[in-house]
Amino acid sequence: MKTQDSEFPLKIQVSFSKLFNKYRAHLDAPQRMIRERAKAVLEIAEKYPILEEGITTKAEFEKYDEQIDVILDELFSSLLQENEIKLATVPFQEFVFKSSKRYKDIILAAGKEYKPQLYNFDDDYTYIMSCSIILNVYYGYNVDFKSPLYYKIPDEEGVNHTYRILYNGDFVDLIPTDKAKDITKEDVEELLDGFDNIALWKEKFPPGSWIFKGFVIANMFDVTLDASISDFKSNLLRNNPETENNTNTFESIFKSIFQLQELKIGFSEFNEEDQLFEKFIFKNVDSFILNDKDKQHCQTALCDASYYKLFKQKEFYCISNVPKYRKLYPDNILYKKLMDQGIKSAILASIVNKEDKVLGILELVSPNINDLNSINANKLHTVMPFLVDSVVRGKKQIENKLELIIQEECTSLHPSVHWKFRKEAKRYLNQITQGNPTYFKEVVFEDVHPLYGQIDVKGSSEARNNATIKDLILQLKQVKEIINKINNLEPLPIYEHLEFRISNYLTELKEGLQVDSERQVLKFLRTEIIPLFKHLSGKSENLENLIKDYQKQVNDNSGLIYKHRKDYDDAVMIINKRMASIIDKKQLEAQEMYPHYFERFKTDGVEHNLYIGEAITKHKSFNKVYLYNLRLWQLQVMCEMENSYYKLKEQLPVQLNVASMILAFNGSLSLRFRMDEKRFDVDGTYNARYEVVKKRVDKANIKGTEERVTQEGKIVIIYSQREDEKEYLKYISFLQHKKQLDKDVEIVELEDLQGVTGLKAIRVSVLYSKSKDNKKEYYTYNDLISEINN
Questions:
Q1: For residues 144 and 79, which has the higher predicted lDDT (pLDDT)?
Q2: Range with lowest mean pLDDT among 517-521, 736-740, 764-768
Q3: What is the CATH code of the structural domain delimited by 226-402?
Q4: Backbone angles phi, psi at 712, to 5 degrees
Q5: Can you tell me the distance from the alpha carbon of 67 to that of 73, in angstroms, rounded to the nearest whole number?
Q6: H helices then E strands: how many in the chain?
Q7: Which of 712, 730, 716 is nearest to 759 (CA)?
Q8: 402 — pLDDT class (breaks 50, 70, 90)
Q9: What pLDDT is attached to residue 405?
Q10: Which segments of 649-721 does DSSP mark as H helices, in order?
Q11: Residue 166 carries which DSSP code?
Q12: In whole angstroms, what is the distance from residue 220 CA to residue 323 CA?
C-alpha cells in the first residue's frame, strides 16, 4: 500500500468516516432492522476511533480485520458472493481488505505467484490519474481522464481472462496538506496540454501533498471476449501475419475467446485459379488440412460434406467428436487426417471476401472431444470481418511481391505496356493449368510511332582521354621524383635507366593517348616500380614518406591515380542525374496527356525513346493529334534540359558541353519485346533502318563539310520527309514566340550513312533564360559562354 510513498501524490488513510456518517443517518430509519444494523456499526466506530481517523499500515488492518469485516458486511451481500466480483480497496493499488468469494476464487485459481496489476499502467500513469481525480473531485474541473481499467488474470488452465474494473468513490475525501499547491485555471490548461509530462504533474501536485481519506468499492466484470476481439483487430492492423510472433499472439487471442488452453489455429490459403490449398501467404501458420504438404487440390484435401459446406454454402464446418465420426465413416479422408494429427474436435471456417470468393480456410483444432462445436463456433462471427481484411491484405502483399519478381526477372516494364504482359501471362497460366504445352510468347505492339531524343556530352571521348593522360602524367612525374631521390641516395645506373624510360612515356603521352598507352604504363608500374618501392621501404624516412604519399593517391583496384578521370566521371554522373530527373518528372505530366511507352538510358548523356499508338493504349482512342502533341512536348523538354544544364555547368568539376538531338521518324513501326534479351526492339528489316539512324546520326557531318551536325547550344532535328520539316518548323516558330528558341533556323543536308541516304536536319539555337531584377534575360549559347567567362 502506497501510504507514505515519496513518489505518489496521495497519502493513503483508509477511513470509514463517510460510511459511518451514512449509518448515522439510518439511526432514525422507520425499519427496526436498519436502525439496529446502524447502531451495531456505530458502536464499533465509537469503540475503535482509528477506523474513522484513518488506517495507514497493513499491520493495523490485520489488527482490526474482524471489525472491518462487520462494517463492510452490508456492502458485500452474502447472497451474491458466488456471482459478484467485488472488492474494497484504494485506487490503483493491489491492496484488498475485503472481497467477494468469487474474487477470492479467481485469485486462487491464478496461482500463488500472481499479483493483480492494472493492465497497461505504470507508475507515471498512476501518478497522473491520481492527480486527475483531485482535479475532478476537489476542484470540480471537468477533466475527462476516464480510461478503461483492466486486470488480466489467468485461470487454472493458464488462459487469460480480462476483467474491467469500475470504482465507486462515494466513501472518499481528498484533503490538501501544507505541501499542496492551489491549482488555477491556467494550471489546468497547462496540464491539459502536457498529459505525458510527468515532471509538470509532479510540480503542480508534489509527492505526498494530498491525503486520500476513505476507501473505494471496485466491481469487476469479465470482458474477455470483447477485449480479445479488440486485441485481435489491433494485431491484424499492426502486424504482419507472416511473422511467428504474430502467429503466437493470434493463437493466444483465440484461446481467450474460446477459453481453451489447448486450442491451436491453422490456415489454408485457397488458390482459386488452380483450385489448390497451399501455404503461400502465412507460411508460419500450420495447416491441419494440408498436414505437412505444401499444396493439395481442395476436393482431394476435404471430404464431400466439408467441401460442400465450406465452398458451396460458405459456412462453418464443425466436428465436435472426430473419433466418433471416424468410426462411422472410415473412408472419410478429412477425419482420418485429423485423427492422425491427434485432433479430436475442430471448426473449419471459410474466409469469404466481399465478392463472395473463398480466400482460405481458418482452422481451429483441439486434442479434446467437444471442446469445439457448432455452438461456440458462433463466436467466430464477430472476428471474421477483420480476418477477411487481413487475408485480403496478405494476398495483395503477395501480388506485389510477384509483380516485383516479374519486373526484376523480365525488365522494368513501363506501366503503359504492362497490361499486355499481364494478358499474355494469364493466357500462359491458363494453358499450364489445363495441362497444355505452351511458352511465354514475345509481346508485339504493331503500328506505333517512335520518337527519339538525346542530350549528349560533346567530345566525351576526347575529354575522357585527356583526363586519363593527365592522371598518367601526374603518376609518372611522382614516380620519377621518387626515383630521382633514390638515385641521389644510392647512385646506380639502373635508376638512371628508369628515369629515362619514364621520360619517354611522358613524351609519348604529351603527344596523345595511344591505344595501348594506359596498358603499357600500368605494366611498367606493376612489374618494375611497385617491387622496387617495396624493396626500398625503410631505407630513408624522407623517401618512405614520399612513397606513402604516392600510394595514397593510387586506386587499389586499377593501380593508377584516379584524379582527373574521377572529376570527369563525376561531371558526367551529375549531368546524367540532372537530365534524367528532368525528363522523368516531365514524363509523368506527358502520360496524363495521353499514355505512351517511355524509356531512357544514361550513357555519356541521356537518351530517351517514346512510342505512341493504339496498340499501346489498348483503348480505341488514338488520334495523330496526340503524336503531334508529344513531338512538341519533346522539343520543349529538350529546351528545358538545355537550360538546366547550363545553369549547372559552372558547378561541375570539369567544364563539359552538351549537344541535343531529336530524330523524327515519318511513319509507324512494330515494337517487339525480346524475351532472351529482356528488352524492347523494333521489329522487321525495314524498321531496323530506324535503329541504324539512331546509333549513327549524331556523329554524322553536314554534307560536303567536316562539321558535325550536332553542336553545343543548338537543338538538331533529324528527318527525311518534307512533311516532317514543315511540322517541326511550326513547332520552332511557336517556341521562338515563347522565347525558348532563337531566330537562326538553318536546314542542312547530311552525309550519307551506311545504308541510309537523304537525311536532312533543322538546327536552331536555344535561348537560355536568366532572371535579373525580376526581369528575364535571354542569351544565345555564345552570349552565355561570354557571360560565364566574364
A1: 79
A2: 517-521
A3: 3.30.450.40
A4: -65, 145
A5: 10
A6: 28, 25
A7: 716
A8: low
A9: 42
A10: 685-696
A11: E
A12: 40
